[in-house]
From TrEMBL, chains A, B:
Its EC number is 6.3.4.19. It comes from Chitinophaga sancti. Belongs to the tRNA(Ile)-lysidine synthase family. It is an enzyme of class 6 (ligase). One of its GO terms (cellular component) is cytoplasm. Keywords: ATP-binding, Cytoplasm, Ligase, Nucleotide-binding, tRNA processing. HAMAP family: tRNA_Ile_lys_synt. The N-terminal region contains the highly conserved SGGXDS motif, predicted to be a P-loop motif involved in ATP binding. This is tRNA(Ile)-lysidine synthase. One of its GO terms (biological process) is tRNA modification.
Length: 444, 444
């Protein structure tokens, strides 16, 4: 089958084009993008050409722009061009020339696509590019997601030439006498990629001459395998990850028994900012004391008695937190509350306001932890009379901000502890107390 | 952590050793197997040494055997040795020296393991070996199963050194002054592997110095990903593959809609002898006429109306085959029966004995297809009197073998067609027939 038919077949197989689509082609003037343009034109696709002049190669940059302009005229295609001051951008943003070129390019291409009503943007990545990408990922270390390589489609971005080998592209250009330009610097291609292209892959091809198409076929299989992998991961997540308001929790026992544990833990915690390097620490939490935690870029993962709790580091609306008898740790904005139940016998009552010991018999589970509100009252320890919290705070000379950050613990609609300040007298430990609830407030 | 502790940790993590196990170590005398031996000894593992002398390298082979004997004495370990006439074996079996060495080695090692009551056989494959294997698989073309590399355990065979880099192994030997021998020919290592070891991987390491451990870590992840992949595949197979006696069937409509189709089709049909090259033909069957088939090394995959039928090419006991009204194709030993229902109006009745037209109103579905048996009778077309099949066959002068291969079609306990020979008179087409069942017998 000739390249044009294979091109059409690939578009249809990967659902890259349906009649009515308008495709904006990113054309540098190099052989890949030129051939992509000719193929699209011949396939009768409604398309236009976008060309970026990075002004990094003096006369050569101008030559490329002139060439692409002529190509657009010849094929009667709409043309969009831009000139970037890439060097200034790179200096100002303190990024490499490569990163600068990439950022400028994709931002402008996407803008142009939207402005002129194109449904997709097409780049001319081909089979070799894809194989290089996957080999590089594998060499750097990757999971299964690093094996799907360059995808035929990502939202509006399509790669209609991924099916083609470089040799097919060159052969078509030669057979039809299609002109193109050569980039003497290959400035937008990374050093490592060039190294894999010119040093690694040719060495592999010496033993396996068909290595590139064979690897490309493998990549297609990996892409399908990944779909099935994701299906299984989603099923496991349903039994391993539970949402509770703004927080999430993972049952420790189930995760301990989950197979394969590393991968499932990764798939769960990576969505909460966990890095590969942090994963072992998170897994270690399963063997930890309640109260230990790992902080990711976005979340805290905290060991509770039977759960790993996942809370956002973002400021949240103050929630209403339900505390069961089994709860060991309650992470909230501003600190962590730790709970344990102990026999009262011979225990000494701590004097720190950060600790509280309450008579279990006076409590009714579940307890609630919440912000204080107007109208709240309690019987401050040592007093026979009830007192409004608002009044109590005035006595304690709390600032507005301090008041805003106060948490209270509630049992059966009664405030039993103004956390970090004073307990309710009716809940205090007495000679008759059997068991006590020991509470510790750890402000951050 | 030093190598001994990492060794112990790896044994425990991969469940390669539990107290009570006895491990037979395959020791060539090279540094890998020598270090494996020292580590096992130091870890207090009950082990013995097995050494194969392939007699391929003259004095060097003897030197290796002597060295391993001395090592066993030094460490007070049981020793088992053997000398193979590898060249004669290779000539006689017409295999390469490499294949000969491999076959002789594994057969004898497994025999020795069983004879002397070892629970496992250990080989000294290390991290580099594993990375080479996966890179080679990827270059040749593979699916996800080609990415798990050398497994830490396959039944009785374990690889306790897979966690270690070659440099770790050499460093331990140097630090402790452990002696070992060097194989000047590396005869048992394939050319391609040597090429990847000495040419490909070093080139990759120039850009990614940590490529080997990074790839090894990736391989561990692929191994876990494969477990999840297999889980999803099994779940799909349950809805895509049905057993029916000795045969299997795959619903065409469901397979057409299955995602990812290629991979799921592969996972289903590979177990029935389908090669990767045949898979596209099998997938094409979904668009084919009923009756088309693909023959694999072990099975026929046949397009029926709503199913792909999978039947073994092995000789089977003659079965009883249920034919529903919807059935289009019945593949059996000796041939294929095709069925269609047609209006009788204006149809010409074929005269070939391989075809039969029966009045639908005289039939009762499901029909049965089975071998004839003693006691069967029917009303041969054109006769008013019933006749025993045994008698009919004598009249037709059938041989014993021919009789053995006769199939009959049965409706409501009556034989309606001796397939390929004569229909029952009571089922023939008459001027009153509305619809007819058109049957075609295609002997192989």
């Amino acid at each position: 089958m000739d390249l044009l038919n294979r091109f059409k077949e690939y578009l249809s197989k990967e659902k890259l084009y349906t009649p009515g689509d308008k495709i904006l082609l990113a054309v540098s003037g190099g052989v890949d993008s030129v051939i992509m343009t000719h193929l699209c034109k011949q396939a009768g696709i409604d398309c236009g050409i976008a060309h970026c002049n990075f002004q990094l190669r003096g006369a050569e940059s101008t030559r490329d722009e002139t060439f692409v302009t002529a190509l657009a005229n010849e094929l009667a295609l709409p043309l969009y061009t831009i000139r970037f001051d890439t060097e200034t951008y790179a200096t100002e943003k303190r990024v490499s020339i490569q990163v600068a070129a990439r950022e400028l390019r994709y931002a402008w291409l996407e803008e142009t696509r939207q402005q002129h009503g194109y449904t997709c943007l097409a780049t001319a990545h081909h089979m070799q590019d894809n194989v290089e990408t996957v080999l590089m990922n594998f060499s750097k270390g990757t999971g299964i997601a690093g094996l799907h390589g360059i995808l035929p489609r990502q939202q509006h971005l399509i790669r209609p030439l991924l099916f083609a080998q470089k040799s097919d592209i060159l052969a078509l250009a030669a057979a039809n006498g299609y002109g193109y330009v050569e980039d003497s610097s290959n400035i937008t291609v990374k050093y490592t990629r060039n190294y894999f292209r010119h040093k690694v892959i040719p060495v592999i091809q010496e033993t396996y001459p068909a290595a590139v198409p064979q690897m490309a076929a493998s990549i297609d299989r990996f892409r399908e395998a990944e779909l099935l992998y994701n299906e299984a991961v989603q099923r496991h997540k349903k039994r391993l990850l539970f949402q509770q308001g703004d927080n999430y929790r993972v049952p420790v026992l189930k995760l301990q028994k989950a197979v394969p544990q590393q991968t499932l833990a990764w798939e769960i915690f990576k969505d909460f900012g966990c890095s590969p390097a942090q994963l072992p620490q998170v897994i270690d939490l399963m063997q930890s004391e309640p109260g230990k935690w790992v902080e990711t870029t976005s979340h805290r993962i905290i060991r509770d008695r039977v759960w790993l709790l996942i809370t956002s580091l973002e400021v949240q609306e103050a929630p209403l937190i339900v505390i069961e008898k089994e709860t060991a740790v309650v992470p909230v904005k501003g600190g962590t509350l730790k709970l344990k139940i102990r026999p009262a016998d011979g225990a000494t009552i701590p004097t720190s306001p950060l600790m509280a010991c309450l008579d279990m018999d006076t409590l009714q589970f579940p307890l609630l932890m919440r912000r204080w509100k107007q109208g709240d009252y309690f019987y401050p320890l040592g007093m026979r009379k009830k007192k409004k919290l608002s009044r109590f705070f005035i006595d304690q000379k709390l600032s507005l901000i301090q008041k805003e950050n106060i948490w209270v613990l509630e049992s059966a609609k009664r405030v039993v502890w103004i956390i970090g300040m004073r307990i309710d007298d009716r809940c205090k430990i007495t000679p008759n107390t059997n068991h006590m609830l020991v509470l510790e407030w750890q402000p951050i």
